[in-house]
Amino acid sequence: MAEADPLHWLAEAEDGELESFMTGLGASGQREWRWDWRLWARPSQIAPAGDWRVWLVMAGRGFGKTRCGAEWVNEVAEHHPDARIALVAAHLGEARSVMVEGESGLLSIGAPWRRPLFEPSLRRLTWPNGAQATLYCAAEPEALRGPQHSHAWCDEVAKWDNASGRAVASWDNLLMGLRLGHDPRVVATTTPRSVPLVTRLLAESQDGEVAVTRGSTFDNAANLPARFLRAMRRTFSQSLLGRQEIDGELIADVEGALWSRALLEGCREDAAPACDRVVVGVDPPASAGGDACGIVVVGMGQDGTAHVMADASVEKAGPERWARAVAGTAEAWHADRVIAEANQGGAMVASVLRAAQLSLPLRLVHASRGKVARAEPVAALYEAGRVRHAGLFPALEDEMCGLIAGGAYQGPGRSPDRADALVWALSELMLGRNGEPRVRLA
User: Fold this and answer.
1) Which residue, among 326, 348, 345, has the nearest Cα to 337 in the 3D structure?
2) pLDDT tens digits for 47-71?
3) 44, burial (CB in 10 Å: exposed 0-12, middle 13-18, buried 19+)
4) Residue 402: closest CA among 236, 163, 158, 239
5) N-to-C CA span, the chain
6) Is 0.70 surpassed by the pTM of this model?
7) Where would I find the beta strands (DSSP E) of 11-106?
């Protein structure tokens, strides 16, 4: 249920009520009240009471996390002229575009006559009373080793770069520099993801050092378009992706899964390098109204590392539609080969893809083992650090984390079609003719 707006009654107040309200504010109050965040915020957007060191706001998209963090920083700055605040994001570009210049950023909130001056070249904001904030990139832990701060706002900590432990290293360096003032504190705002830093913060909440606020996209329904909310309910209701990105729920790993979420986060990269060979893996559906058609693009880098570059899978598609999707994907990514499972009728798969004007080499594969058995050697490639994900692929990764050693599947949907397409593509690129799959040319 969405939280009530503290001043919702103003929209329906009569003239007499409004006049009485404004008179009661006095001259100073009339000038300031519209900028007083504590009047407008929902209770969950106000820092909790208590002697917490870290306030973790872990909620769905659109909850108002950015506004929450920015208003907390602004309040700290206005009340503490000697405040030295760290603003940390996954990248400096995001720190500037979201935390500072965004619709809910520091330059858009608070009384206009008290807003800070932003000096982009210095990565610094300065409030009229002297308080300062500096922007940092979480992918550069060493940049946080020397500076000292009294407060910090860390945005989207779950998407910080986890490669080589950079996210945790940045966090630790930040904490060790929080030694100014008498009460150093940090606010961390994020959409939940099961990464080492978030898991650690939740564990530390047990001793009272970390205060946790959870929330859903729908808590902020009063400030979000009705069409957006309807689309979220229709598209993501009850899905794993919806539970994470909309409901703000941290999705835990399934016991015995071939892939853990921490493993996938550890292989994350912003973009793939130029690849010598690109393959599109396809897992065709058995029927138009059934499972998805898994379509996954994987490339081989010059260093022998594979890069998962796109999940172009389509849902509930007939043969003509999914064939066009495969052909379009192959053309867009300049693929060298399409590899498609043909257990559901090899001749049909080949003819459908040919009809979609797929002119590049097509290889049909026939599975001699189950999906999980085929996935096990591919999962070993991830463990060895030989596969990277160029971005975030929630639906694909949910399926991967649902494949259980021994043969079970506990992920979303009836079948891991996206994950199977990934396995075919990576098997073609990385395992060669001596491993799965057994192949023949179409």
Assistant:
1) 326
2) 999 999 999 999 988 899 999 999 9
3) middle
4) 239
5) 54
6) no
7) 54-59, 84-89
Distance CA 224, CA 228 (A): 7
What single DSSP character describes residue 417? H
- The angle subtended at Cα 360 by Cα 356 and Cα 366, nearest 5°, is 85
Question: What backbone torsions phi and psi does residue 338 show, to the nearest 5 degrees?
Answer: -110, 130
Pair of tokens at residue 185: 């504190």
Q: Could you please report the per-residue DSSP string of 324-357?
A: HHHHHHHHHTT-SEEEEE-TTTHHHHHHHHHHTT
The mean per-residue pLDDT over the stretch 403-410 comes to 83
C-alpha 40, offset from chain centre: 28
In 3D space, the residue among 117, 119, 157, 113 whose CA is nearest the CA of residue 138 turns out to be: 157
Q: What is the dihedral sign for C-alpha 337, 367, 266, 188?
A: positive
Element (H, E) at 401: none
Nearest to 422 by CA among 315, 306, 302: 306
> What is the number of helices (H) and of strands (E) in the chain?
14, 16
